[in-house]
Automatic annotation (TrEMBL), chains A, B:
Gene3D superfamilies in the record: Phosphate transport system protein phou homolog 2, domain 2
Entry protein name: Phosphate-specific transport system accessory protein PhoU
Subcellular location, record wording: Cytoplasm
Domain of life: Bacteria
PANTHER family cross-referenced by the UniProt entry: PHOSPHATE-SPECIFIC TRANSPORT SYSTEM ACCESSORY PROTEIN PHOU (PTHR42930:SF3)
Organism from which the protein derives: Sphingomonas guangdongensis
Keyword match Transport: yes
GO cellular component, one term: cytoplasm
Amino acid sequence: MTTGQEHTVKAFDQDIGQLRGLISQMGGLAEQAIADAMTALQRGDAVLARQVRAKDKAIDAIEAEVERLAVRVIALRAPMADDLREVVAALKIAAVIERIGDYAKNIAKRVPLIHTGPDRIEALSILPAMAMLASDMVRDVLDAFARRDADAAAEVCQRDNALDDFYNSIFRVLVTFMVENPKVIGEVAHLLFVAKNLERIGDHATNVAEMVFFAATGRYMGDADAGETGGK
Amino acid sequence: MTTGQEHTVKAFDQDIGQLRGLISQMGGLAEQAIADAMTALQRGDAVLARQVRAKDKAIDAIEAEVERLAVRVIALRAPMADDLREVVAALKIAAVIERIGDYAKNIAKRVPLIHTGPDRIEALSILPAMAMLASDMVRDVLDAFARRDADAAAEVCQRDNALDDFYNSIFRVLVTFMVENPKVIGEVAHLLFVAKNLERIGDHATNVAEMVFFAATGRYMGDADAGETGGK
């Protein structure tokens, strides 16, 4: 199957480089989807919202490509230890980014259902800041993956608390708004889900951070004794 | 590493059997978590809700065990084609079941926040039927995985539409209830999320069904031409 150790190593490095490239490309598309979905929501821009939904297929296609490539790499190169963990992490991270793309798509889907302008709902003006926080977590955790940086991954996890606080504030603001404006409860309920989607994006970025940490160290985050597979 | 082809095959069969066993165990725990969370919600049983949250750690632990075992199997046995796809599927399915467990945990977390009894909210009496539908999808898709049954997996996907309809009905019922009972909007908003969690459990069962289909056939569901890796 191979013509020598060096050839194999080089081929593996190329493969892993390609995997990283695909993950980075997916991450970029997911960040853009979050930003565009929020812009569409703020502007009530149904056309942009439709574009976000259409572009989600590109994210799905790259995930399928990552899976095909990862399986081929494992089958052909039989990577061991650190290398294997990284291929497995790529496989799992791609699945999570696909889901982050779905959350952005879900936000975009709600755009045509929300007609109450930002001037009327305080939370609608806070949401973009929350989206930025979530999107930054996605970007930074994928940077951590690209650099195999366990510390940077751990740092992203810590930011999830701030996002949760954001979500809880927005929940209270929206419920108060519903109490005061019963006629738009249906619309505002959709905003609750938008906030929840952003909170879930943060959870998923945290999941990715845990995978990056494991791929880089062979240990589970917060599980200092689990050195079974050997640390770096 | 191995003492012969037969030895390797037998060891692989044992490994895959162990993986299937772990996945089945996880699935059972996830189904129980959904059922217990709904019972706790119906009865306002905070003790049972706490138990659901505590037991989620067991699901997480099995997921970590599946990952360790799958990586070891890939590294030691270098499975090919169908066998490799099955190991990869086990890895991904375990990650999804872990997430299904999280949704059950999220439902349980909301129990102490909801005091409005089932006699007052029509949707609260419909939710258990919706939960049953979601839980059955989880059980049946894991049975399909255990039997490598692509047709059964495809059938589970079709049921997701019924679950979505259920969700849309409940959404409307709850919004109407909020309009008529503005004092309990905060509580009822939590029920909206419970319904959404159940709908997401169905989405995840559908994701698993797609993975089972791919593992069994080497093709992506609904992608008849993608025979690149060869069908069975």
